[in-house]
């Protein structure tokens, strides 16, 4: 005879290794507090609806409160034979309060129970991730405020393109994160629904009140269809999808941090706390944390693809395949929260080598567009201005100099529209300052942008 809580119709026990393969307790123990919370609301509801007597309700609630204390003190010991967190806790409850503990499961199934646990879990973690994203945005904003007038090379194709304000470059990530937060917040609407009371798939014969238990758990609504409630994991897919995009943004930023901190760029120096040395090369200081964040992006994409693949083709309603929804979700929560924390610290503590960036900007042709625009503003068709500028760039390359080094007479050989004021126009600082179109890199625009960003975070910035 099986010892299992569902052992009634079984004639023999499964072998230990079969139990192990089917068990989820190794990872769903992460849901211990949510499971107790869900059970507590369920029992309160059963009591209020007269399905359990007051004595029964009080006994079960007392037992659940004791379990919660033990869980918080990390004193619970789980068994693989009891398969998952739900059966483990129910057994512990019954061991504590006697057979009345068996009434906890009235009008409920593990299918709506596990779905409820995950909604509770993901709702809280999504809020935490939104908070951490916001803190990371603050770190970016602090550096941006300090570097509005710091010039940096701007790139396309990783080739020098046009000079920009370093703050402008950093702020691009601020806005990506703002949209990431938007995606997480939006998904909250759909996470905020209670599956509890859907039963195994069809609802229950007991006169339960699903809205009551939903309210007790802080959900704003309930799933309208019991089969949908227990069988979809779209709320987790959305979470993994928003996380994947967030990680894509972090990974791009990480890549830039890695480039910028290299000897070839030398634009920033990372704080020792966020770098590591080499066991063989004493001179090295590696941007390991940025590399790890870039690397960890892969596992988050993998978790998304994994769950989408698990769900594909599953008939309604619950299938054991769905137990596979958890590890990727837990892993993603851990990866995303860790990456956000590390990144915020890395940005807050990095040193920006303003002099290096500004010296670089003076040494290249990223002001070529200024010359072309200058000619166009004096009436030359832009295509022709582009051609004239290209020729002058070529002259410079042959001479081994940059545009500002060319004497006026040489420039005028290509166009008499060029006058002495060109040297002021070619200064990188002027190139940045004059890009005053809305959302552009001009210092005034960057200040407006920073003020808007501060408003978005609900704080005032200069
Ligand atoms: N451990 C299971 C899971 O995570 C709980 C639900 C089990 N339901 C069932 N009918 N076997 O999916």
Can you walk through the features of this model?
Residues 8-302 form the Fumarate lyase N-terminal domain. One of its GO terms (molecular function) is argininosuccinate lyase activity. Keywords: Amino-acid biosynthesis, Arginine biosynthesis, Cytoplasm, Lyase. Residues 365-432 form the Argininosuccinate lyase C-terminal domain. There is one protein chain. With 462 residues, this protein is mainly alpha-helical. The chain has 3 domains: 16-106, Fumarase/aspartase (N-terminal domain) (Fumarase C, Chain B, domain 1); 111-149 and 157-353, Fumarase/aspartase (Central domain) (Fumarase C, Chain A, domain 2, Up-down Bundle), CATH 1.20.200.10; 360-457, Fumarase/aspartase (C-terminal domain) (Ribonucleotide Reductase Protein R1, domain 1, Orthogonal Bundle), CATH 1.10.40.30. Helix content is 61%, strand content 5%. It is built from 19 helices and 6 strands. The chain has a two-stranded antiparallel ribbon with strand order 1-2. Helix 7 runs parallel beside helix 19 (443-456). It is elongated, with a radius of gyration of 31 Å. It starts with 15 loop residues before the first helix and ends in a 6-residue tail after the last helix. Bound molecules: arginine. Residues 24, 28, 84, 110-111, 114, 318, 320, 322-323 line the site of arginine (ARG). Arginine binds at residues 24, 28, 84, 110-111, 114, 318, 320, 322-323.
